[in-house]
Amino acid sequence: xxxxxxxxVSSHYRLRLPxxxxxxxxxxxxxxGTVVNHRGPEFHAMFADCQRRLKPxxxxxxxILIYAGSGTGVMEAALxxxxxxxxxxxxxxxxxxxxxxxxxxxxxxxxVDTIEVAWGEAPDPALVEAKLKQxxxxxxxxxxxxxxxxxxxxxxxxxxxxRRTPALLVVxxxxxLAGIELRQDEWGLDIVVSASQKALMCPPGMGLxxxxxxxxxxxxxxxxxxxxxxxxxxxxxxxxxEESTFTPPVSLIAGLRAALRLIDAEGLPHVLARxxxxxxAMRAGGAALGLPVFTKAARLSNSAAGLSNTVSVFTVxxxxxxxxxxxxLYKEHQTVIAGARNRLSGRVIRFGTMGHxxxxxxxxxxxxxxxxxxALGRAPKPGAGxxxxxxxxxxx
Length: 396
Ligand SMILES: *Cc1c(COP(=O)(O)O)cnc(C)c1O
Known about the structure:
Blueprint: E1 14-15, H1 25-31, H2 41-58, E2 64-68, H3 71-82, E3 88-93, H4 96-107, E4 111-116, H5 125-134, E5 139-143, E6 145-146, E7 151-152, H6 155-162, E8 168-172, H7 184-187, E9 191-195, E10 206-211, H8 213-220, H9 232-239, H10 250-266, H11 268-288, E11 306-307, E12 311-315, H12 322-333, E13 335-336, E14 348-352, H13 359-375, H14 384-394
Parallel strand pairs: 1-13, 3-4, 3-5, 5-8, 8-9
Antiparallel strand pairs: 2-10, 6-7, 7-11, 9-10, 12-14
The chain binds pyridoxal-5'-phosphate.
């Protein structure tokens, strides 16, 4: 069947979710290129280039395992490679994705202890330290950037505590990597997992994993959770040949290389600084339109922890429904943002500020949000959101 005009997405379509995120033209073009032999020289060169460029983004010397799969796939894989039924794990839960870790670990028969943090706040590393004194854990699981709440965990401080124990620190950095500082080796993070469709500016479909020496030692002792495709030892062996064990998503890896080249051309520190500027502008603009920032975590000085720069989460004012805002923005302004699919449903809205985003995107978001609020019966001061964001962007 040939495609019809109904299949085409409007050229005004604005993907402003906290993932998937907009894919730059360079990445789209790379993905459309010739599919090459996944055991041949063209692939080896492409894969090696991805390795070289990914390492600084993870802040590691480890090779990066690249899987066809989503972020949840590599979250599950990380646990399958280190856990046996009955192992004690400590899960720091500060939102929906920490709950997902709990479901996975529980399903594997682990003995699960949790630190439950009020949604919107960042975890207190001292609580992790206290738990680790009471019991030996196989692993501590933490979400780097909680996309459901906009709070960022202080991984440097948590890593400092966990590295003094035999426990492995497993980090879900799906929505943080490449948008918020991450230094795996320096901070003592043992397994870091991420995915392609957030700040890495690629379509969905790839899961990325980086494993420390400490974690490899544990993985080599073998867990008793069954795994085959997801056996990290197989992927590690293939890395030596610049390959993956099974057929990799060749076209997506071509796209990843193009995205990593864009990151390197801008310079990683500049990429992170852009996320910080745009995140702050978005929060200022939303607040000026009468939507308070949901996240309560304070920005800690000298640290990337606290308020997220990759997702802005706003509280929906009394009397309005978050779903109505989301629907109106899409229908009238082709602007796709997220509500919540959890206990915050209807009460918050979320804008992605990660990956391929610019000042213009943020200002347009705020303009359309203002029009939407007015259409829904609110009366924000004309231009208030854009003005507050501009003022924030103008700050050094
Ligand atoms: C998006 C996201 C995931 C899930 O990734 P999928 O690719 O949808 O499986 C996991 N953790 C966080 C923090 C995320 O933002």
